[in-house]
Amino acid sequence: MKAFTVIAIGGALFLTGSYLYKINQAQYKITIVVSGKVHKISAQGVTLYIKYNIKNPTGSTMRMTAPLITITVNGKQVATSSMQQIDIPEESRDDSGKIVIRANNETGDIQTEVMIPWIGLATIAPDLIARFQNPDTGGKTTIKVATNCRVYTLVGSFPYEQISTIKV
């Protein structure tokens, strides 16, 4: 009976350690694929339509807060998203509004709009304004999209940040 107890405790410790290791590695394996395009140009500025898909190649299901998206051009921050104005697919949302990332799955397209005011663009890149106003030229502008959020697991939570480069 004593040998059975030792084996059961050892097995439980091994399974717990294995699960904790998977959770720790998940923060390095989750990827966010970001794409964007110019949605509209108005008197207030340029509105970008940002779409992202979160991929979880691990065996652990996790939850994530709605990401805060920061857009930078030429190293200067020009806009941030509103964490309330985000369109999360129903099958990827839990009751508290967090994004559910199922094991070995992806969330589908999560969408938001980010408005870059003209005053912000004018101070950083005058040629950027010309490209946005004349999309027929075919020139695309490279912007960096930083995604910041918090990922929740059964054993705790950890911050997550990813920087993607897209052309709009």
Sheet with most strands: 6 strands, antiparallel
Mean of residue pLDDT? 80
Taking pLDDT < 50 over at least 5 consecutive residues as the criterion, the unreliable ranges are none
The fold-level CATH name is Immunoglobulin-like
**How many individual domains?**
1
At the first level of CATH, the class is Mainly Beta
Query: CA-to-CA gap between the ends?
Result: 67 Å
Oligomer: single chain
Could you give the count of β-strands? 11
Instruction: Specify Rg, calculated over alpha carbons.
Output: 21 Å
- Note the overall shape: elongated
Q: Given the structure, what is the number of helices?
A: 3
CATH superfamily: Immunoglobulins
Walkthrough of the structure:
With about 170 residues, the chain is of the alpha+beta class. The protein has a single domain, classed as Immunoglobulin-like (Sandwich), CATH 2.60.40.10. Strands 3, 4, 5, 7, 10 and 11 form a 6-stranded antiparallel sheet that branches. Strands 1, 2, 6, 8 and 9 form a 5-stranded antiparallel sheet that branches. A hairpin with a 3-residue loop joins strand 1 and strand 2. The protein starts with a helix and ends with a strand.
